[in-house]
Amino acid sequence: MADVLARRSCGLGHVRFEKTTSHPASIGASSMADTGVLEALLQRVEKADGGVDSLAAAAGLGVDHQVIVGAVKSLQALGDVISAELRSSKHWELTEEGTETAEQGSHEARVFSSIPAEGLPQAELMKLSFGKIGFSKAMSNNWIRVDKSHEGGPRIFRTVESIQDQVREKLLLVKRGDAAQLDEKEKNELKKRKLLAEVTVKSYWIAKGSSFSTTITKQETELTPEMIATGSWKEKKFKPYNFEAMGVAPDCGHLHPLMKVRTQFRQIFLEMGFSEMPTNNFIESSFWNFDSLFQPQQHPARDQHDTFFLSDPALAQEFPPEYLERVKKVHSEGGYGSQGYKYDWKIEEARKNILRTHTTAVSARMLYKLAQQEKFTPVKYFSIDRVFRNETLDATHLAEFHQIEGVVADYGLTLGDLMGVLHQFFTKLGITKLRFKPAYNPYTEPSMEVFSYHEGLKKWVEVGNSGVFRPEMLLPMGLPEDVSVIAWGLSLERPTMIKYGINNIRELVGHKVNLQMVYDSPICRLDS
Amino acid sequence: MPTVGVKRDFLFNALGRTYTDEEFDELCFEFGLELDEITSEKEIISREQGDSKASGASDLILYKIDVPANRYDLLCLEGLVRGLQVFKNKLEAPRYRRVSPDGGEPQRLIITKETAAVRPHAVAAVLRNITFTQERYDSFIELQEKLHQNICRKRSLVAIGTHDLDTISGPFTYTAKAPGDICFRPLNQTKEYTATQLMSLYKTDSHLRHYLPIIEDKLVYPVIYDSNGVVLSMPPIINGDHSKISLQTKNVFIECTATDLTKAKIVLDMMVTMFSEYCAQPFTVEQAEVVYPDGKTCVYPELAYRKEKLSGEFINRKVGIRESTDRIAQLLTRMCLLSQPTGVGDEIEVEIPPTRPDVIHACDIMEDAAIAYGFNNITRTTPRTYTVANQFPLNKLTELLRQDLAAAGFTEALNFALCSQEDIADKLGKKISETRAIHISNPKTAEFQVARTTVLPGLLKTVAANRKMPLPLKLFEISDVVLKDESKDVGARNSRRFCAIYYNKTPGFEVIHGLLDRTMQLLDVKPARGEGYHIQAADDSTFFPGRCAEIFVGRKSVGRLGVLHPDVVSRFELTMPCSALEMDVEPFLGFTAEVLLTHDVPMQETFKHQFPARSQSRPALPSRPPTTKTVFGDMSSQAGLEALDGFLADRSYVEGFTASQADAAVFDAIPSPPPPAFCHLRRWWSHIKSFQTERARLPPAKSQFVLPPAPPASDAGEDDVDLFGSDDEEESTEAARIREQRLADYAAKKSKKPALVAKSSILLDVKPWDDETDMAKLEECVRSVVMEGLLWGQAKLVPVGYGIRKLQIGCVVEDEKVGTDLLEEAITAFEEYVQSVDVAAFNKI
């Protein structure tokens, strides 16, 4: 337990990595210029004709230019109190070193002045902060000389009586704001020595705005509990929000788009009174997946190239024995009004375990169970679950996908009924233009492919498959002869890809999913 | 679905009119065909081999038409045209006739008995005085190819050989010989080869190599000779060059060899019905005789016309139309099913021609009537089927959970059920043999070797594929995994899992643990030992040592959570710490008002199939020991079986995680196969049964579960030591004593460490069956339950309605010795009085 506690305390101390974000639509409580500066500025603007420059105002008010810039922004936020036009100008400024030089003289001048008449050992000079640079400059100015043969090491002597520190004088000029008196060459020279720098100054040209006033009411950023309590909000002005900005994304989880579509399909079936089949069995015997559906054992779908077979557990162990005999008979000899397929039906083939290739295997189990009831009752079943095909994979085909299936079993159902149910089902998906093409399916007769008119593509596209289960499938199960079972199926992935505009199925299903797509996908309304 | 390519202009010429592409598409749609593509030879070659190769190719427009897989009569231009012309009422379906040769004997094909070992069936026919053109010849070859690919199942079921009859002389012999003994010049080769040489020659042939495996491993290969010893063909691989047909061929001998006689007859009928059109006497086929090894002679082609009678009402009722009998007969006739009313009521006689082997039931005829009527002319109706919808409870729970897990800040992932062995074993630091995974025998790539046994690898791979996303990544998935399960008919079952991971710069165990707490809150399970949930340290190679805990709900393990082992993180190409949770969802299903749905079908017929290989090697079951008494109760009583069923609901074995002698002993105590109602017991029972051959090698039992026969009781002949007594009368003191001792022994053995004596105070609600139950007696029964570490407290009767009162009784238990489930089992055993027992309150002292 102590261990757990220790871990817990560590855990509680962990750093949160969530981004700390402030509300971008608010102005925020950042550098709000204080009211004094704002009003002083406004008074200057009032006195001036046409407007004032922010730099001049800063100089005049004796505050930093940034304070004035802040004031301008604050005033702008108040509405049309002022109008401010951004201007930029270049000017020369002393660098830190330049300021020092202007105050104390250039390095070379300081070297000169630090040398007494009797001279100074070079080593001493080099110890001074300005020694190195000043020495070489003073040398090139011929202000000093070095006596290298002097006993006790090289010694430096003045060569002239007095000097004129031009560098300092020039810098003083700049400092006074008279940089214009220097020519470009001189300025560049000083720039090279890193004493001067050319800076671009952005300033505002501030003029009166349409609702100019020299007094300002301090604007509040946000409503506070105190304001509500005291009622002070009634007197306050609030800064406007910037509605152009995006809001802060909520910290939340997301459902997968394919599952969102699945939820909607489930909903549609439930609305139509269909009960959900227990499809939680991916492993199926060939018997239930194929044989019980009257799909012959040599059918290409039962090939290694189309179906995943199992090596462990390779074979199913148990079947309802009498039913199995009836299935065997209808395949190999016919019966129930059928010629049968007339081939040697083998239990070994039926026992082979596979990954189910369609959920119709479960429908077969459910219909068989229905047939075992004392009295037949009509049913409507549906399922949406995974099925598996050992097929070639491409941008729209995976080895596993979700099959949507609907089944209705009742006395006297007609082909017209199947079309009617399909019409209702697809209407709920927002698809109203339907037509049906005769097709072939081993376990349904008649079989129909369902086509819908695609307004975008201006053509009919296949949206599903349907049919009436063959008597050779239903009668061996023990269902009454006049009971018909109609069914249809479609994939879940295809409508989802169309709905969410996804071209590569791998971006939708599987680990290569684009989580951003999952985060961003809208809710699923199939009929809109 | 097979696709047939036809030249548009030839098609229109044969149809006697031209169509626009749209019109023809419409006609196809109505008839159940699909105009898949409009192209040209040039376009195809240029697409497949580049423009340079295509320069000389034909510009003629080709229609690629998809044909339903069971309509072999539409696999060539001739058949398509015939079908469409009849459909459009422009042609009457021809009548195919089998005729004897003009003077002389029919051709004979003699089958020798050697063929039985490899390809036992053959049929044959002759097309006499045929006139080929290049187009007809190409179509003739193409139809053979289409048939080979479809109904013939790539020649494995049937192989067709066509020969210029004027180059060979009958009778022909179909035999089988050792590959070295067959020698001939195969089609389009310049020299002779033995069959053995041919097999290696064609190993590299892009077309023929696919057929080699059909006979490759056989001792003898099939071969057909003429009377002069000329080889016609070596089916299903290649024909001889000697008898090859050409544009000039006038008389064609067709043979089909097969492993499936029904299909051979169909294939032969197709070949001759389609191309007898070009014979001097159109639609006549010269018969051939096939002599079987037993001397029996059959005449082919069969060209059988079958007659079916059905009622117009049947068609109307099934399709949902109201048409007269005459009109229905007309509709069917347009589908090449010549029909007429018999005049008896609404009876219609339908003749199914040899071209329509797909018609095997009245429902096929009904479909043709519907097609001719026009699917889209049928009024759409709403069935009046009244049903109440139910959700599958497991899916319902899953749906509800998903919503709230997303609301808890986790994002849903969706991964494949199939994966590699490495994903579920090596990468997680486990052995594949420990996983109970099912294995796929024919995966095309390693991605499909097994079905996943855990959802975790999928989530880790999802994170790996989304490393660019801002941290933390919080993902979950509720999906099925697949586990081997001997109790299921297929030997495997799905199990629904909830898995979540947290991926960040810190492990975030507290986040995953918090999600567990939230999930339990959602599932209405309180944090508490015993009936609630708790976690406790566990060892698991997937997790970082000391950072893994097992999740217990009501003392049953439902899953694990923890910080993943750094090796696991690295193997999934991740770089940050990660914590994860995976647990079963099914234990939380509880009882729902809805019918319990399952795909398990009743196997009520007790006869189980005898599968020779297994049953013969299985020795007879050892004889039953004289006792049926176990710590779970008497295995010959319902109550005992029920107790064991409950015990096994969440356990694979009686003891530990592998089968042991404990299982074998309890197995032996069960006198007969348990009834299906006890599903857990049954699953366990059939699983343990499978160990019979190796039971001697099972590890020894740690505890004693089967009780030795009790010494004969003095008071009565009854020696039943019925643990949780289903008996009516009070237990004898002797029995009670024994039971008490057993329970004590069991409890003592169950406790692993002599830890601090943790005690709990429990308040039980014991509900009687009805208002007439003797509550005093009930209380007496309850108090008669004696266990070490159990002390009964005060009791009172609380009204629950309708005059029924429940017994509310308190007790103090030592946690190590007495569990609520043990207590509940003991009390519910008084089934005469007790309907149910619930824990009303559970407090640690």
From TrEMBL, chain A:
- Which ranges carry the Aminoacyl-transfer RNA synthetases class-II family profile domain? 260-522
Gene3D superfamilies cross-referenced by the UniProt entry: 1.10.10.2320, 1.10.10.2330, 3.30.1370.240, Bira Bifunctional Protein, Domain 2
Signal peptide positions (record): none
Q: Transcription as a keyword?
A: no
Q: Where in the cell is it found?
A: Cytoplasm
Q: Give the source's domain of life in one word.
A: Eukaryota
User: By its UniProt entry, which Pfam families does this protein fall under?
Assistant: PheRS_DBD1 (PF18552), PheRS_DBD2 (PF18554), PheRS_DBD3 (PF18553), tRNA-synt_2d (PF01409)
Q: What is its EC number?
A: 6.1.1.20
InterPro entries tied to this protein: aa-tRNA-synth_II, aa-tRNA-synth_II/BPL/LPL, Phe-tRNA-synth_IIc_asu, Phenylalanyl-tRNA_Synthase, PheRS_DBD1, PheRS_DBD2, PheRS_DBD3
Q: Which UniProt keywords apply?
A: Aminoacyl-tRNA synthetase, ATP-binding, Cytoplasm, Ligase, Magnesium, Metal-binding, Nucleotide-binding, Protein biosynthesis
Protein name, as recorded: phenylalanine--tRNA ligase
